[in-house]
Amino acid sequence: MIQLNIRPLRRTVLILSSLAILFSMLFAPLAALAADGDEPAESGNALIIKGKVKNEGVGVENVRLVVTGNGFEGEASTDPEGAWSLEVPKKGVYDVAIQLDSLPEGVGLRDPEVTVRQADLTMVESASVLFPLGIDTRVEQ
Fold first, then answer.
1. Is the pTM here over 0.90, yes or no?
2. Residue 37, pLDDT above cutoff 50
3. Does residue 49 contact residue 75 with C-beta atoms inside 8 Å?
4. Three-state DSSP string of the chain
5. What is the dihedral of CA 59, 65, 69, 70, to 10 degrees?
6. Separation CA 50–CA 23 (nearest Å)
7. HSE-up of 108 (CA within 13 Å, CB side)?
8. Contacts with 33 (C-beta within 8 Å, 6 or more apart), sequence order
């Protein structure tokens, strides 16, 4: 009669099962990160794009910013301290455009060519966008 030793087989099954559980716990979060960003914010976790508009260290009030992207369009205005924020519906990359006609007279962007900046909310729940201001150098025609 041939006698089989089952202990090594049991040990192998136990080790392989443990490894499978360990790998599933380690790599499941990576699959979630690889998602394309089309999912809405998780319940209770708002997605916020925000910023501060300042000129020479002082907040600028009533500057309008338009946020677009992922089928969304919204507008925000700065408060007396120059702060603004806007909640967006889902993760993704959004364009934030400063409305130059809402800046006070004599104030413009330090880089007048950059009126649109991007806010990337693919991996985070909050992104800040800054538009450095200075003396208006635009030439009116």
1. no
2. no
3. no
4. CCCCCCHHHHHHHHHHHHHHHHHHHHHHHHHHHCCCCCCECCCCCCEEEEEECEECCEECCCCEEEEEECCEEEEEECCCCCEEEEEECECCEEEEEECHHHCCCCEEECCCCCCEEEEECCCCCEEECCCCEEECCCCCC
5. 80
6. 38
7. 12
8. 123
Sheet holding 83-88, edge to edge: 83-88, 47-52, 126-128
Beta bridge partners of 95: 68, 118
Q: Give the rounded distance of the alpha carbon of 28 from its chain centre.
A: 22
Token readout for 92 is: 């993704």
Look up residue 94 and give its two tokens.
């959004």
What are phi and psi for residue 18, nearest 5 degrees?
Answer: -65, -45
Strand-pairing partners, residue 116, are 97
Q: How far is CA 70 from CA 4, 25, 91, 118, in A?
A: 63, 31, 8, 13
> Residue 135: pLDDT above 70?
yes
**The pair of three-digit structure tokens given for residue 15, joined into one six-digit string:** 């080790």
Among residues of the chain, what percentage have pLDDT more than 90?
57
